[in-house]
Amino acid sequence: MRRLWVRWTLLIVFAAFVATIFVSLGEWQLDRLHQRREQNATVTGNAAAPTRPADQIFTRPITDTDEWQRVEARGTFDADHQFVIRYRENGSADGYEIVTPLRMATGNLLVDRGFAALPRGSQIPAAAPPPPSGEVVVVGHVRRNEHGRSRAITPVDGQIRLINSEAIAATLPYPVLNGYLSALSVEPPQIGNLQPIAPPELSEGPHLSYAVQWFIFTAFAIAGIVFFVRSDLRSRREAAVRSAR
Known about the structure:
Layout: H1 2-48, E1 52-53, E2 70-77, E3 83-90, E4 93-104, E5 107-117, E6 135-143, H2 150-153, E7 159-160, H3 165-169, E8 180-187, H4 207-244
Parallel strand pairs: 1-2, 3-7, 5-8
Antiparallel strand pairs: 2-4, 2-6, 3-4, 4-5, 6-8
Helix pairs in contact: 1-4
């Protein structure tokens, strides 16, 4: 019997260890689901809000709760300082984006002028198509800075991987406002067949099903202990019956 208690103790310790990991993973997935729902609510709420002047929003560091608000900005594009954003996706398409500073009366704002699809095997252009000249009116979505390694946010020969206003400002002869504007429309119209960046997909993803799976695995671990203990007790009873004959 002592050997059985040792065996059961080891099984229980192992099952408890595994169950703790499974429960933690399930709770992590539920936390991801909660974050996804909050993000979806932010996108939906901000997208439904009326368009606001850019100088009411771009007055502070842009955060997640600011994203996807629609704003209107007026100014002049700085065609001498443009950036090609490499290896981007827009929906199911691969391509690149063009970022151009907009010189406004209230500050300088980076504008993602749009996405250009790139056929498979094609080279990313070295230079961006020129923006409209003169005063323009840009309506677009508020976006926060993207973050990554230094080599991903630092422009090299006018090209870059991520859009970070602080890193880009270091290469410009003037300061820029925090965050950037993702253009929905530009008047007068721009050339280059640039498409607006699509908002994130408003789905909850697989987090709930993953959480349920981890909790089911936890139940299996507990059920496994019960099964082994009952199996050992049944084998012990059968052995005792055979010995009594």
